[in-house]
C-alpha cells in the first residue's frame, strides 16, 4: 500500500513494455470447469512481449488454474491461447515454450544443484562443456556459484527458490511462469528476492506471469496486474491504475484499505451519504440509484480545527466535502497515524483516516478533539450496490 | 466483466477441448496397457474362467444322438434309434454315471453289446441338434449330418458331454454334509484365531508404544520372525511338542493337538506378525495431545485406555482382525499338517482337486472361499479411507513416561510371547538336527539329505531360490512401473482407475483360489499361453500376482511422497518422462523398491497355497517339499527343509539391510 503511495500517480504515465498491437500471449474466451464447478469464466487477456504480469486475487479465485492452462498442465475446457502468434491451445506441456517455478520449487532431491540446473540442458544436443558453462553462468546469475555441488536439502528456502528459477530459465524460455514463488519464505527474504527476481526479469527481458495473493508483492513487481475473483478478471491495469482507479468495489476493497458507506445518487455530481450531500463523479449512475461510496483512509485530508484558515492558503475558496469530525482513537503506526473519526454528517459509521506525522503535529490533532476533514471530490468513488 | 458473472449457464455445454497427445503420453499409455494386460491375464481372466467353471455342469445327453446299424453286408440300414433308447435296452450306463466333468468321454460301442470291431457291420451316427458333439479318435465331429463308419473306426467314437450353466455344483456341495461342515469349521477356527491373535497383538503393540519397557527393538524383531517361515512350520513344531510323541502331550489334558487346538495355536503363530504390525502402526500415530487432554482432565488410567487408546486404534484393530480372519480361513498348509480329521475349507479344495481330480467342485469351494475374503477386503478398504481423514497432519507423537506398574507387565507379556515364537522355531531346529526326537537326541545331518526323500530334494530348494529371486526382480519391476502409471500419468483417468482396482484385487484372492484359477485358465490347450503351464514362468507370474497388492501399495506410498510437480517441471524442460523416471523417481524411491523386492522374496520362499497346484516335476519347491515330506511321514526332514527356508530368509533380510545401507549411502546422499 505504501509502495503505491510513493509513486505519485498520473493517469498518463502507464508503463507499457511493448507495442500493444502485437501481444506475445493472447488468451481468448477461456473457460475452465471442474465438473459443475466453473473455475474460470470467459477469460480474455493480452500480454505484451517482455511484460511482467501478476495474477492477483484471493485464495481459490482461479489464478493457478489460469497459469496451468497457459502451461498446458491443466487443459482449459474452452478457449484459445496464442503464444508468439502460435496457437498453443491444445498443445501438450512439453511442446510449449515456457519455464516454470512452483511454490514447492520441485527441485529434484537426489540431484545436486548443478545437476538440477543442467536437467533441461542435457539431452538437447549441447556438448558437455557447453552445458557446464551454461550452468556456471546461471549459478552466477542467481549468486550461488559456491553451492553447485550441494543437494537441495542443504540450501535455505530462498536459495532453493533461486535454483528453481535458474533451472526454469536455463533453457531460455519465451515465457516464465511463477506460481507463488515467494510464499514459502519469511518476510525479509521475500522482500529481498522480490527485487532480485524483478531485476533478473528486466535483464533477460523474458515475458513473465507470476501468481500471488499478496497485493504488496504484485504492486511492487508487476508492470500490469490482473485482479481476479471467483474465476473472472475484475480489472487489468498498472499498479497505480489499479490502486487509484479501481473499477469495481472488489478491486477497491482487495487492494489497499477502504472506508465504505451506503450512498444514494441525488442528482448528477452529488450523492447522499448519511444525512448530507457530497460532491463526486456520478457517471453511469441514475438519480435515486443506491450505491456504495468508497474513500481510502490515506486520501482523507485533515484541515485542523479552523478550516477557513487553511482554505485561505492552499485550497479553493469554497472547499467541497468538508465535514466536522471527532477523533475517537489514534494509533501510531510508525510512518503515519491511523485515526478513527465519527462525524454526525456521516451517520453512525466510523471513518478511518491516515494522517501524516507532520500533519498531526501541525494541526495538533489529538484524541477527543474535533477537526475538519475533507473527502476530496475526485477520491470519493462510487460503485453500484448489489442488493 | 460483470456481464460474464451474470451468464449463469456458460457456453460450456459444447464439447470440451482435448489435449493433443505427446509422444510421452503415447508411451505411457502403451506401458499401462501392457501392465494392465498382464494383470488381466494373470488375474482377471483366470478368475473369470474359474467362476464359469464353478457354474458349469457336464452330462451326457443321450437323447441328442441317433444311430443306424447296417446288416452284415454293410449296405442295408436298420431303423434310426436314439442313444437313449439303446441305453435303456442294453442297460449299459447307469443314470448317475451320465454326470461327468468337462473331460468326460463315453464310448459309443457301449450301446451295442453285440459290437465286434472285426465285423463287416457299418454304423451311422448323427446329432439331433448342432451342439451334440462326439470324437472320432481325437477329431471332433458335430452336427446333424449322418456320418458313417466301419466297425474298426466306430470303436474309436466317443460321446462328449453337454455343458449347462447353473448352480447345480453349489447345491451338490451344500448337500454333502461333510463338505458343508467344513465351512462351519473354517469360520469357527478363523473367528477364534482372530480374537486370540488380535488381543495378543494389541497387548504387544500397546506395550511397545505406550510403555517404557526395555528391549523394544529386540521384541519387534522376534515378533516378525513367523513371516520368515511357511505356515506349515508351526504345525510341525506343534506335532513335535504336543503330538503323539510330544514331550508336552500331557499339558493338553487328554485333548488331541490334531484338530481345532493345533489349528488355533498354529494360526496365532503365523498371523501374529501381520496383526501386530498393523496395530503397531495404528497406535504409533496416536496423537499425544489426546493423552495430555485426558491427563489434564484427571482421567484414570483405565478410562484413558478405554476412551483414548482403543478408539484411536480402532481402525487398526478392525483392519488387523480382517487380515487375520482372511489368512486363517484361506490358509491351507497348517490344517493340512495339524488339522487331523477336522475338515477345513481350504484343505477341501486341495483334496477335491489333487485327490479326486474334481475340478468343478474345487472351483465351487474356491468361489465360496472368495466370499469372506472379498467381504473382508471391502470393509478394510472403507475403514482405511476413513482412517486417513482421522489423522491430522499436526498430530504430536506420544512419548510414554516410565511407570513400573505398566512397564513390568508389558515386559513380562512380551517375554512370554517371544518365548512362544522362539520355542516353536527352536523345536523345529532341534527336530531338524537330531536323530529321533525325543528318544534319540544324537546330532545328525541325515534330515538334510533331502535327495533321499520324496518331495523334490535339494533341487526343490534351488528352485525356490530361483523363484524367489525371479519374483523379487520381475515383481519389483512390474509393480513399481504399474504404480508409477497409476500415480503419475495424468489423463487416462478411467484406465488408471481400472488398473488400480485390478492391482488391489489380489489382496482379496486367497492363494489357492488363484492357483486353481491358473489351472483352469492355463492348462487349456486352446489357450495360446498354455506352454507356460508347468514351467517356472507360471510360478513366477502366479507369485507376483498373489503378493501384488501389498507391493503395489508400498510403491504407491513412496510415489505419493514425491512432489507432484516433478512431471510438470520435466515437461516444461522438454525432457521425456523416462529420463525423469530413471534419474529421479527410481533413485528417490529406491528404499521402497528394495522393500518390495525383499517382501516378494520372503513370500516367494514361504508360499505354498497357490504354487501347490502349479508345480511340475522339475519345478518342485522347498515349501511344497515341506508339505509333501510331512505328508509322507518324513516329519524331521520336513522340519529341516522348513528351517532351510528360514535360514535363507534371514540371510536375505541381512543382505537386504546391507544393500540398503551401502547403496543408499551412495545414492541417497541428499537425505
Ligand atoms: N482438480 C480440481 N478439481 C476440482 N476443483 C478444483 C480443482 N483444482 C482447482 N479447483 C477449484 O478451482 C478453484 C480455483 O483453484 P486455483 O487453484 O486456481 O485457486 P488459486 O487462485 O490458485 O488459489 P490459491 O491462492 O489458494 O492458490 C478453487 O475453488 C478450487 O477449489
Ligand atoms: Mg494457487
TrEMBL record, chain A:
SUPFAM superfamilies: MOP-like, P-loop containing nucleoside triphosphate hydrolases. PROSITE patterns: ABC_TRANSPORTER_1 (PS00211), ABC_TRANSPORTER_2 (PS50893). GO terms for molecular function: ATP binding. Residues 25-255 form the ABC transporter domain. Gene3D superfamilies: 2.40.50.100, P-loop containing nucleotide triphosphate hydrolases. The keyword Membrane applies. Keywords: ATP-binding, Cell inner membrane, Cell membrane, Membrane, Nucleotide-binding, Translocase, Transport. It holds the Pfam family ABC_tran. InterPro entries: AAA+_ATPase, ABC_SmlMolc_Importer, ABC_transporter-like_ATP-bd, ABC_transporter-like_CS, AminoethylPonate_ABC_PhnT2, Mo/tungstate-bd_C_term_dom, P-loop_NTPase. Belongs to the ABC transporter superfamily. PANTHER family: PUTRESCINE TRANSPORT ATP-BINDING PROTEIN POTG, SPERMIDINE/PUTRESCINE IMPORT ATP-BINDING PROTEIN POTA. NCBIfam families: PhnT2. This is Fe(3+) ions import ATP-binding protein FbpC. It comes from Shinella yambaruensis.
TrEMBL record, chain B:
It is found in: Cell membrane. Residues 183-380, 461-656 form the ABC transmembrane type-1 domain. InterPro entries: AminoethylPonate_ABC_perm-1 (IPR017664), MetI-like (IPR000515), MetI-like_sf (IPR035906). Gene3D superfamilies: MetI-like. It comes from the Bacteria. Keywords: Membrane, Transmembrane, Transmembrane helix, Transport. It is a multi-pass membrane protein. The chain crosses the membrane at residues 29-51, 183-206, 218-241, 261-286, 307-329, 361-379, 410-434, 465-486, 498-521, 533-559, 580-602, 644-664. It holds the Pfam family BPD_transp_1. PROSITE patterns: ABC_TM1. Belongs to the binding-protein-dependent transport system permease family. PANTHER family: POLYGALACTURONAN_RHAMNOGALACTURONAN TRANSPORT SYSTEM PERMEASE PROTEIN YTEP (PTHR43496:SF1), PROTEIN LPLB (PTHR43496). This is Iron ABC transporter permease. It comes from Shinella yambaruensis.
Amino acid at each position: 500500500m505504501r509502495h503505491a503511495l510513493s509513486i505519485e500517480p498520473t493517469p498518463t504515465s502507464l508503463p507499457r513494455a511493448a507495442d500493444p498491437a502485437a501481444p506475445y500471449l493472447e488468451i481468448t474466451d477461456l473457460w475452465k470447469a471442474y465438473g459443475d464447478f466453473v473455475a474460470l469464466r470467459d477469460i480474455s487477456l493480452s500480454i505484451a512481449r517482455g511484460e511482467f504480469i501478476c495474477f492477483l486475487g484471493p485464495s481459490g479465485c482461479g489464478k493457478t488454474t489460469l497459469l496451468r492452462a497457459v502451461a498446458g498442465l491443466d487443459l482449459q475446457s474452452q478457449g484459445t491461447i496464442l503464444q508468439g502468434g502460435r496457437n498453443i491451445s491444445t498443445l501438450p506441456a512439453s511442446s510449449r515454450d515456457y519455464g516454470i517455478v512452483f511454490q514447492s520449487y520441485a527441485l529434484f532431491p537426489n540431484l545436486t544443484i548443478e545437476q538440477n540446473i543442467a536437467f533441461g540442458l542435457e539431452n538437447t544436443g549441447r556438448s558437455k562443456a557447453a552445458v557446464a558453462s551454461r550452468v556456471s553462468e546461471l549459478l552466477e546469475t542467481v549468486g550461488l556459484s559456491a553451492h553447485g555441488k550441494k543437494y537441495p536439502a542443504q540450501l535455505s528456502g530462498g536459495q532453493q527458490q533461486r535454483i528453481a528459477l535458474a533451472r526454469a530459465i536455463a533453457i531460455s524460455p519465451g515465457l516464465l511462469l511463477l506460481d507463488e514463488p515467494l510464499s514459502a519464505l519469511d518476510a525479509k527474504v521475500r522482500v529481498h528476492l522480490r527485487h532480485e527476481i524483478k531485476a533478473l526479469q528486466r535483464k533477460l527481458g523474458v515475458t513473465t506471469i507470476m501468481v500471488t495473493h499478496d497485493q504488496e508483492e504484485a504492486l511492487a513487481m508487476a508492470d500490469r496486474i490482473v485482479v481476479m475473483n471467483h474465476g473472472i478478471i475484475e480489472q487489468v491495469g498498472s499498479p497505480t491504475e489499479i490502486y487509484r482507479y479501481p473499477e469495481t468495489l472488489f478491486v477497491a476493497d482487495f487492494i489497499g484499505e477502504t472506508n465504505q458507506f451506503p450512498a444514494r445518487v441525488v442528482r448528477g455530481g452529488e450523492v447522499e451519504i448519511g444525512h448530507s450531500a457530497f460532491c463526486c463523479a456520478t457517471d453511469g449512475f441514475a438519480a435515486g440509484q443506491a450505491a456504495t461510496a468508497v474513500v481510502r483512509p490515506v486520501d482523507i485530508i485533515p484541515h485542523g480545527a479552523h478550516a477557513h484558515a487553511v482554505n485561505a492558503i492552499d485550497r479553493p475558496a469554497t472547499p467541497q466535502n468538508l465535514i466536522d469530525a471527532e477523533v475517537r482513537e489514534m494509533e501510531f503506526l510508525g510512518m503515519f497515524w491511523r485515526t478513527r473519526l465519527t462525524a454526525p454528517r456521516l451517520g453512525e459509521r466510523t471513518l478511518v483516516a491516515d494522517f501524516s506525522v507532520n500533519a498531526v503535529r501541525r494541526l495538533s490533532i489529538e484524541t477527543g478533539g474535533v477537526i475538519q476533514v475533507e473527502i476530496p471530490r475526485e477520491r470519493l468513488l462510487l460503485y453500484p450496490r448489489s442488493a | 466483466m460483470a456481464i460474464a458473472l451474470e451468464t449463469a449457464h456458460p457456453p460450456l455445454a459444447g464439447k470440451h477441448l482435448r489435449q493433443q497427445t505427446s509422444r510421452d503420453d503415447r508411451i505411457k499409455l502403451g506401458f499401462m496397457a501392457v501392465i494392465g494386460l498382464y494383470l488381466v491375464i494373470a488375474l482377471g481372466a483366470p478368475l473369470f474362467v474359474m467362476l464359469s467353471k464353478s457354474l458349469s455342469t457336464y452330462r451326457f445327453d443321450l437323447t441328442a444322438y441317433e444311430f443306424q446299424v447296417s446288416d452284415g453286408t454293410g449296405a442295408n440300414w436298420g431303423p434310426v434309434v436314439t442313444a437313449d433308447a439303446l441305453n435303456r435296452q442294453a442297460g449299459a450306463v447307469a443314470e448317475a454315471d451320465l454326470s461327468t466333468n468337462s473331460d468326460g468321454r463315453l464310448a459309443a460301442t457301449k450301446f451295442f453289446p453285440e459290437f465286434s470291431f472285426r465285423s463287416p457291420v457299418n454304423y451311422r451316427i448323427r446329432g439331433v441338434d448342432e451342439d451334440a458333439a462326439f470324437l472320432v479318435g481325437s477329431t471332433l465331429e458335430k452336427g446333424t449330418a449322418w456320418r458313417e463308419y466301419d466297425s474298426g473306426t466306430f470303436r474309436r467314437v466317443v460321446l462328449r458331454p453337454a455343458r449347462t450353466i447353473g448352480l447345480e455344483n453349489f447345491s451338490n456341495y451344500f448337500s454333502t454334509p461333510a463338505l458343508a461342515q467344513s465351512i462351519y469349521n473354517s469360520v469357527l477356527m478363523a473367528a477364534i484365531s482372530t480374537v486370540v491373535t488380535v488381543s495378543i497383538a494389541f497387548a504387544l503393540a500397546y506395550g511397545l508404544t505406550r510403555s517404557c519397557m526395555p528391549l523394544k527393538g529386540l521384541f519387534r524383531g522376534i515378533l516378525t520372525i513367523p513371516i520368515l517361515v511357511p505356515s506349515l512350520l508351526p504345525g510341525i513344531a506343534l506335532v513335535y511338542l504336543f503330538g503323539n510323541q510330544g514331550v508336552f502331550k500331557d499339558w493338553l489334558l487328554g485333548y488331541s493337538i490334531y484338530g481345532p487346538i493345533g489349528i488355533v495355536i498354529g494360526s496365532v503363530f503365523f498371523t501374529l506378525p501381520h496383526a501386530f504390525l498393523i496395530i503397531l502402526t495404528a497406535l504409533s500415530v496416536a496423537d499425544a495431545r489426546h493423552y495430555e487432554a485426558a491427563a489434564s482432565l484427571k482421567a484414570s488410567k483405565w478410562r484413558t485406555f478405554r476412551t483414548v487408546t482403543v478408539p484411536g486404534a480402532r481402525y487398526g484393530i478392525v483392519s488387523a482382525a480382517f487380515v487375520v480372519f482372511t489368512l486363517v480361513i484361506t490358509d491351507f498348509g497348517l490344517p493340512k499338517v495339524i488339522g487331523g480329521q477336522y475338515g477345513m475349507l481350504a484343505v477341501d479344495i486341495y483334496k477335491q482337486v489333487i485327490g479326486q481330480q474334481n475340478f468343478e467342485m474345487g472351483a465351487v469351494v474356491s468361489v465360496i472361499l472368495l466370499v469372506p475374503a472379498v467381504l473382508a477386503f471391502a470393509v478394510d478398504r472403507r475403514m482405511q479411507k476413513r482412517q486417513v481423514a482421522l489423522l491430522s497432519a499436526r498430530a504430536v507423537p506420544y512419548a510414554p513416561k516410565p511407570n513400573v506398574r505398566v512397564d513390568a507387565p508389558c515386559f513380562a507379556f512380551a517375554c512370554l510371547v517371544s518365548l512362544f515364537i522362539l520355542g516353536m522355531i527352536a523345536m523345529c531346529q532341534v527336530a531338524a538336527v537330531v536323530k529321533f526326537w525325543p528318544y534319540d537326541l544324537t546330532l545328525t545331518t541325515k534330515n538334510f539329505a533331502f535327495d533321499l526323500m520324496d518331495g523334490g530334494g535339494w533341487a526343490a530348494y534351488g528352485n525356490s531360490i530361483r523363484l524367489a529371486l525371479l519374483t523379487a526382480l520381475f515383481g519389483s519391476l512390474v509393480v513399481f512401473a504399474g504404480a508409477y502409471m497409476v500415480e503419475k500419468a495424468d489423463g487416462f483417468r478411467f484406465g488408471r482407475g481400472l488398473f488400480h482396482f485390478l492391482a488391489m484385487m489380489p489382496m482379496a484372492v486367497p492363494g489357492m483360489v488363484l492357483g486353481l484359477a491358473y489351472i483352469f485358465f492355463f492348462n487349456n490347450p486352446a489357450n495360446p499361453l498354455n506352454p507356460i503351464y508347468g514351467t517356472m514362468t507360471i510360478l513366477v507370474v502366479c507369485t507376483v500376482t498373489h503378493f501384488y497388492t501389498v507391493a503395489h501399495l508400498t510403491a504407491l506410498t513412496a510415489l505419493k511422497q514425491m512432489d507432484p510437480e516433478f512431471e510438470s517441471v520435466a515437461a516444461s524442460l522438454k525432457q521425456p518422462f523416462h529420463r525423469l523416471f530413471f534419474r529421479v523417481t527410481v533413485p528417490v524411491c529406491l528404499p521402497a523398491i528394495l522393500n518390495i523386492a525383499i517382501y516378494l522374496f520372503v513370500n516367494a520362499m514361504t508360499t505354498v497355497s497357490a504354487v501347490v497346484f502349479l508345480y511340475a516335476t522339475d519345478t518342485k519347491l522347498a515349501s511344497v517339499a515341506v508339505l509333501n515330506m510331512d505328508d509322507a511321514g518324513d516329519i524331521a526332514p520336513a522340519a529341516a527343509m522348513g528351517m532351510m527356508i528360514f535360514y535363507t530368509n534371514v540371510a536375505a533380510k541381512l543382505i537386504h539391510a546391507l544393500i540398503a545401507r551401502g547403496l543408499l549411502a551412495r545414492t541417497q546422499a541428499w537425505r
